[in-house]
Amino acid sequence: MIRVVGRQIMGDELVLQALGRYMDSHAYMDVSELISDFESKIRSEQSRTQRCVEFVETFRKKRDGDEAPDGGDGNAAKSEAVLEKEQVEIKERIQELEGECGWYLTQLEKIDEEEHKLEKLEQGYWREFYRLYDTYDRLGERSSSLVCQTDLLTGCRNALKQTNVLNDAFCIWYDGPFGIISGLRLGKLPEVAVEWSEINAAWGQVALLLATLARQVHFSFSKYRIIPMGSTSKLVKVGSENTRYELYCTGGFFKSSFNNAMVCILHCVQELGEYAEKTDRVMKLPYSIDGDKIGGLSVRTGSSDANWTRALKNFLTDLKWLVAWSTKRQRF
Fold first, then answer.
1. Which residues are registered as beta bridge partners of 178?
2. Longest CA–CA separation in the chain, Å
3. Average pLDDT in the 45-62 region?
4. Whether 240 contacts 298, CB under 8 Å
5. Are 9 and 46 in contact (CB under 8 A)?
6. Residues 178 and 314 grouped into a single domain
7. Whether residue 120 sits in one domain with residue 253
């Protein structure tokens, strides 16, 4: 009977060893403490069983000896009854411990099931995390690209704001005594033969530039309407479309229409200049205009060619200031 109980205790010890290995792999601190307590109880029962086994062996040796003490049978029977009672108690205790072990195993199974669920949740979390991180990374790259494009476009826009388109299209400068627009001289001198075709083409550029400036700043001339037509440009009196002034000359002595056209376009420059000075307090045309004169010189032919040429140079200077004013107006 004692050997049977011993084998049961050894079997429980193997179960405990298996549980120990299981707990080593799962690292649950509270359950490990319970198992440790359970092992201590098993070792205590094993110690009691071992003492019983040693006592029984000693008893058997004495009983089987040649010389048995008097009254030995009664003492042996009593000792054997005590051992059987202890064996019954040990078996009951072992059954209790087996029940506790079963409960612990059930709890471990539940814990293992919960752990499996948590692992699944963790895997799902990391999948979602990497998906969102990848999306965030791609959005970051897209955002950086858009920032670069925005900076580039802003730089282009600022550069365009600084660009004077009219000044590039209608370059006004000078060449000695001559005012020049788009590379065409305006005026003539006795010592410098400038063809009328060049002068007419220069007036055509003036007419186109002045009409473009007025349209750009939404200004309407009160007395004359400019009709840019290249070398044969004209001005029409507002309210009397049949009254036309030809802004070109073919030579000869009859230049009244041409002179009137130059006076009319000078009046247009004066009107636009007054409008510019009203809208911009720092704006002031460098050459004042009074009737047919600009800077004190008449734009009509008939006087000296030198004075006429100087008057037209002053005219182009005022026109260049109006171009600069329109560009400044657009920026702000």
1. 175
2. 178
3. 70
4. no
5. yes
6. yes
7. no
Q: Do residues 146 and 179 share a domain?
A: no
Q: How many domains does the chain have?
A: 2
Residue closest to 247 by CA, chosen among 263, 267, 269: 263
DSSP string, 159-223: HHHH--HHHHHS-EEEETTEEEETTEEE--BTTB---HHHHHHHHHHHHHHHHHHHHHTT---SS
Q: Is 121 inside any structural domain?
A: yes
Question: Three-state DSSP class for 289?
Answer: strand
The HSE-up count of residue 153 (CA atoms within 13 Å, CB side) is 6
- Average pLDDT estimate for 160-172: 76
Instruction: Please indicate, yes or no, whether residues 110 and 177 belong to a single structural domain of this protein.
Output: no
Q: Indicate the range of 34-38, 69-73, 138-142 predicted with least confidence.
A: 69-73
pLDDT band at 253 (very low <50, low <70, confident <90, very high): low
Strand residues in the chain grouped as ranges (E): 172-175, 178-181, 184-186, 224-227, 234-237, 240-246, 289-290, 293-294, 297-298
> Strand pairing partners for 173?
180
Instruction: Map residue 285 onto helix, strand or coil.
Output: coil
CB 323 within 8 A of CB 166: yes
Looking at the domain assignment, is residue 189 inside a domain? Answer: yes
Domain assignment of residue 130, given as a range: 37-55+81-162
Residue 25 lies in a domain: no
- 20-37 residue pLDDT tens: 555 554 444 455 666 677
Cα separation, 182 vs 230, whole angstroms: 12
Q: How far apart are CA 248 and CA 39, in angstroms?
A: 122
pLDDT of residue 56: 64
Q: Residue 278 belongs to a domain with what CATH number?
A: 1.10.418.40
Domain boundary among 129, 162, 195: 162
Report the side by side order of strands in the sheet with 172-175: 172-175, 178-181, 184-186
Show which of 162, 184, 204 is a domain's final residue: 162
The answer to whether residue 61 is domain-embedded is no
The string of pLDDT tens digits covering residues 259-299 is 999 999 999 999 999 999 999 989 999 999 999 999 999 99
